Amino acid sequence: MDFIMTIVEQGLIYGILTLGIYITYKILDFPDLTVDGSFPLGAAVTAALITHGVNPYLAIPIAFLVGVLAGICTGLIHVKCKVRDLLSGIIMMTALYTVNLKIAGTNNVPLFSQETMFKNSMLESIFGETIPGYMKIVLILLVVLIAKFLLDFYLKTKSGYLLRAVGDNDNLVTALAKDKGNVKILGLAISNGLVALSGCVFAQEQKVFDISTGTGSMVIGLASVIIGTSLFKKLTFVKTTTAVIIGSILYKGCVAIAIRFFDPQSMKLITAVLFLVILVISMERKQKAKGMAAGQKGGKNA
């Protein structure tokens, strides 16, 4: 039971990150590698705030806002400096490594003796010294649902539709007398804000900040998005934001099961192999779908 609970907890935390990558990968079609820097950025900000006595719940919106700033910087490098999308992310990811070290003060900050969103005086006053184990998953789920519903709401606004249009047809945005560059910057800001928020919750759940926590975040997020969107593609009643969160839980489950049968030191290799398998299956499905569509079109023309 503890094994399953751990998978769900980790899957939900990375589900917030997956929501951010969904924006850049699926909506903006922007390969944003800033993610590998903005995830530990959220964790570094959280560690710095908590060790200085700031309320752990207040660290959540602050981490999100700092992530937004990182996304804006990536957007400015791409839009204003005319640097290619992939390179913009790499530049910002590299810069954030130093920024994260400066914020945290060191490459590892333990939070075991500090109050976190999962263990603090407020929860102890309600439940006593022994806080129920289920409270951790309840609090994580609450943060995930708030992030998901706010993103769903935003995507239904005029600004949200413009964001979708930039990824599908940026000429349409220009035709509407809107600056497509500014729309991209906004999308990157929201995306990295969500990624940093995920890093914030992760640091409080693990009770430690480590500079290497962001390594492979992009791979985890992409794999989760591909799993979620592929599995629930035909189920129209399941929103894409819900699908990618479920995809994150499923991906974490696959990794956890694989690690049970292999050396834990092989985790990164297992992650890479799983991502490759998911990518290949996804590409094969797309090719089959295109082949069927072409066949039906040819039949009609005949």
TrEMBL record:
InterPro entries: ABC_transp_permease. The keyword GTP-binding does not apply. GO terms for cellular component: plasma membrane. GO terms for molecular function: transmembrane transporter activity. Keywords: Cell membrane, Membrane, Transmembrane, Transmembrane helix. The keyword Cell membrane applies. The chain crosses the membrane at residues 12-28, 58-79, 86-105, 133-155, 185-205, 211-232, 244-261, 267-283. It is found in: Cell membrane. Its main location: membrane. It is a multi-pass membrane protein. This is ABC transporter permease. It comes from Blautia faecicola.
